[in-house]
Amino acid sequence: MSLYSFGLEPLSCHAWNKDRTQIAVSPNNSVVIIYEKKGSEWVKIHELTEHSGRITGIDWAPVSNRIVTCASDRNAYVWTLKDKLWKPTLVLVRINRAATCVKWSPLENKFALGSGARLISVCYFEKENDWWLSKHIKKSIRSTVTCLDWHPNNMLLAAGSSDLHCRIFSGYIKDIEDKPGPTAWGSKMPFGELLLETKDCGGWVHSVSFSPSGDQLAWVAHNSSVSVVDATQGKEVTQLTTDRLPLVSVLYVSPTEIVAAGHDCCPFQFSYKGLGKLEFVKKLDVPKQTSKGSMSAMQHFRNLDKKATDDEINELGCLHQNSITQLCILAGEKARVTKYSSVGLDGAMVLWDFKH
Amino acid sequence: MLSCTLQSNLMEALKAVLKNPPINTKNQNVKERAEGLVLKVLSAFKSSDIEKAVQSLDQNGVDLLMKYIYKGFEKPSDNSSAVLLQWHEKALSAGGVGCIVRVLTARKTI
């Protein structure tokens, strides 16, 4: 694992390009900065400044090389690279509240946008008029949509919301694609159809993630719990309450293993092997071995004066010094992730290795 | 309930009082009575027995105990805070910060 600090500003979101040589991040303001890896340093190469509100979501489509960004100014833009510059195209999302999260679908022909307007906007490109159109999903959502994830079949969409529920909708758009086949979640899938609604999760749902096969859905909620719903087991929910601070981002790294991170500043591994068998495996951060070394008497008393302690090690025994805001797959396909990245409120990005 | 405490079978009393918490009722009186009972049982324990009692509870029990502890903090009386703090320390080591987070995020209060 390696840590890189992008400055002091908290990083709210990040996205990687296809070969992981470029990263798009937002330092908690209305600008997206793209850095390129040069040696062991990250050099700023582009700055995307179309938004007027704080950026809440970035997603980079690896194959088509388009970036979609959404912000609290109720807009979303799709950026395409033309002549080495990123050109924005406004997307007509038609929402009257801030956008909270955005995700490209697996085949990159559409993307979903969650918003505080209690709806999800699924947007696709219409060739005739050369613009991006959107269709709304409003059914039974009673509060802000906080997180989204697409099912591998490019049709189903999972959404977590601050009304304490997790839902799966159909995001099938008949203008641009063929009818989907039946899945373990249901067979009739007109656009906006609600295929699953879990009961009260106990807290705001912060993040959702489908398993590589799409048959399980994991989410983390603000009541410090991780839950998994299994389509192969009659859509039963297994919940595990942890004795730590709430987790904020969750990622499936293999058919059974889940990595989640949040306010405890380091990633944790969980394992789901069947109904009722959701377990905590281990903490994935190895605390730095601090060598006390030789501290001069001057240092010793200076520390006592400044910090009321003569320890010079940092408080938290982990790489990140503040909450982690987002996890992202770095290397390996969804069923066997070998590396993932995390960004946090401390302005740092850490690359982690995952051993199966 | 009274007979349990009279018999000094405090462990049983604790389990009994933590069963069926008044979560779904809107009746304030019911909630207050339940809280009063819990407080009585908690105060009846000897300091050295608190840890064992907490160990005997399952995860949900510890969460529920923590909710009652915080409710008790809201209306301090005589010696209640000191007793509650002792319980809080033991419940915290059993339930961790996650337990306290669940007290804060719970929509339906006891």
Structure description:
- The complex is a heterodimer of chains A (356) and B (110).
- By secondary structure, chain A is mainly beta.
- Chain A is built from one helix and 28 strands.
- Chain A has one helix spanning 297-307, and strands at residues 2-5, 13-16, 22-26, 32-38, 41-48, 55-61, 66-71, 76-82, 85-91, 99-104, 110-115, 120-126, 131-137, 145-150, 156-161, 166-170, 194-197, 205-210, 216-221, 225-230, 236-241, 247-252, 257-262, 268-272, 278-283, 324-331, 339-344, 348-353.
- In chain A, a hairpin with a 2-residue loop joins strand 8 (76-82) and strand 9.
- Chain A is globular and about 75 Å long.
- The model of chain A has no long low-confidence stretch (mean pLDDT 90).
- With 110 residues, chain B is an all-alpha fold.
- Chain B has six helices and no strands.
- Chain B has helices at residues 2-6, 10-18, 28-44, 50-55, 59-74, 80-105.
- In chain B, helix 5 (59-74) packs across helix 6.
- The radius of gyration of chain B is 13 Å and the shape is globular.
- The two termini of chain B are 19 Å apart.
- The mean pLDDT of chain B is 83.
- The interface between A and B is medium-sized, with 15 and 12 residues.
